[in-house]
Every structure is written in structure tokens, then in C-alpha cells.
């Protein structure tokens, strides 16, 4: 979907149409979750602090998110997908892979199916979608971004290797900023540069991911569309109107976040063993700690207790070898995530082991609308 959250807001409020809109945060606090294309022309992007976004676009209109509405629209869109194939792998509320090798309708090509789907989305939701058509997931993803907004692009088998050659590696889905920086340090800046490396050389620097990088540099990706791919984690986070510095406020915030995570797990019949804390300071520096339990978390109170134990070392309230010094500045954001999910029900009365080993989780990022 094209700028999904912001486009829904502009659809539902005619006064926002044609104006630069940011969903999430506020004029002074928080982070942009989605930006309309009018806002993007000023350089406003998802994950950008609100104050930075306002400096770039003083007329930016902030709108609070309505995730219940976005979920309802997403369900409409997925119902449209399901008319054409049962092989649907959701990536987020607004994006999915579809395998149409053997479609449910008689259409002459995958391109024709993509055209039908885009037309149905526009007619039934009033929103626009972009589609990428190709012979594997990696290239279809690249193609879907190539003609945004409201675009359709096809990468044929003959085009695939050439299409990858000139692309910067940071444009590759599956190569994040940290990996792109490592590649740049090795002189790998484009797909053609990446293709010049053999498997052994890539393995020395990138380990198990080398096979994937070796393949995509040649336009190859054998990953199937996985319609039943299990959820890996569930989380919630909160940006505070004012930085918090005292333990009672922080503990209360973790109670609320833990309740939200637990309710999301309960709706899906899930529990998990690994609790991760995310912390962002007033200067936007971010850190986190995680702890894995021997069994699934047994109750909401237990989840909150583990989250609080993960946070305590960041305060001067905690003494001992894990002490990390006084809290010199306020906390801007806290987040709690539960992972290592399992559909099996948590056992009432299960023991919780609370001897904590600190570990950083650099992958913690807000769930953002990046379309």
C-alpha cells in the first residue's frame, strides 16, 4: 500500500488531502510512524523524530494513529488477495507476498492478476497500492518499490541479474544499515560489486547470510512464499509526553506495556519465553536488554516483573555487579517485546528464573509504515 496509514487518514478526512501529514507522535514528542507523499517531498520519513520532521516541514499536520481502522482496512485488502491465491505471506498490515503460480482465477499472467488486485483495492477501499511482479520474492519486493506510488513494475527472468547490478546494496531488501556499512567498508556498494565476491569470501565476513547475498547479487532467491509462517514476536512501546526519570513512573509504564503485550498474545493464543526491554533516552540513544526463561511466561504480572527487572540496572536503585550508573537523563521511550513464541498454553504456576544476563538487541525498531 502507498503511505498506508497516512493515506487512510487522508481518505477519511477530506481536509487532510493534499497536505503534508504525519501519523504518530506529536508536534513536540515522538516519532513519525508514517508520512504522506506530500510530507515526503520535504524529506519527512518514518522513524524520524517529530521535532526533526517539523524543522523540515513546518506545516506538517500530526494525526494520532488509529490502528483499529488500519487493521480493518488491511483485512479488506487481504480478502481481495484471497480471491486470487491461497498462498499469501503477510509482511505487515499493508504488505504481503503472493504466490500466483497456480492462481484461483483464470488470468493470463501474474501481471494481469496484479492489475486486477490493484483495481479492486482502489474500488473497494479508495486507496492505491503498488505491485511488483517477478520470479522470486527478492525481485518482487524490489519491483514493488520501483514505481511508487500507484505503480506496477515487472522484472522478468532475463531482466533480473541486470536489474540488480546498478542498485546500491542499501536498497536490497534483507540488507540493513549495519550490514550495508560493513559492505561499504569492503568496497561493496552495488549489486555488481557484490556479485564479484565468491561464496568463501562472503562467508568469511557475513557467515550464514553469505549464501543469501551470493544469490541475490545474481537475481536468485529460492525462498518460498510461506502462508503459515509463525509470528516471531509481539511487542508494544510508548513515547512519553515528558521524559521520565523516577522509578515509579517507569514501573507503571512497564505495567501498561506488559498488559498490552499480554492481551495481544492472549488474542492469538500465544505465549513466549524471551522478554526484551527497549529504552530510548532523551537524546535518542537507544539500548535494550533481553532475558530468556526456561518456560513460557505464565501471567501478565510475571511478564511485567521480568520487564522491570531488566530496567532496574539503568537506575541508581539497583546495586551490585549489574549497576550501570545513575540515570543522567530522562527516558523518552520504553518498549516491551515477547518472543520465542509458542502456541502451547503457559502452565499456571510455572517457575520464573530471574537471574538476568544483560544482552543488547540491536534489531529493536518500531513497527513502522514504510510504504
From TrEMBL:
Q: Where is this site: Substrate discrimination?
A: 5
Q: Name one Pfam family in it.
A: IMS_HHH
Family assignment from sequence similarity = Belongs to the DNA polymerase type-Y family.
The chain positions of domain UmuC read 1-176
Q: Which cofactor does it need?
A: Mg(2+)
Give the source species: Nguyenibacter vanlangensis
Catalyzes what? DNA(n) + a 2'-deoxyribonucleoside 5'-triphosphate = DNA(n+1) + diphosphate
Where would you find this protein in the cell?
Cytoplasm
Q: Does the keyword Nucleotidyltransferase apply?
A: yes
The family database entries (InterPro entries) matched by this protein are listed as: DNA/RNA_pol_sf, DNA_pol_Y-fam_lit_finger_sf, DNA_pol_Y-fam_little_finger, DNA_polymerase-Y, DNApol_IV, PolY_HhH_motif, Rev_trsase/Diguanyl_cyclase, UmuC
Taxonomically, which superkingdom?
Answer: Bacteria
**Where along this sequence does the record place binding of Mg(2+)?**
94
The UniProt subunit note reads as follows: Monomer.
Q: Does the keyword Metal-binding apply?
A: yes
Q: Which residues form the active site?
A: 95
Task: Please give the name of this protein.
Answer: DNA polymerase IV
Enumerate the UniProt keywords alphabetically. Cytoplasm, DNA damage, DNA repair, DNA replication, DNA-binding, DNA-directed DNA polymerase, Magnesium, Metal-binding, Mutator protein, Nucleotidyltransferase, Transferase
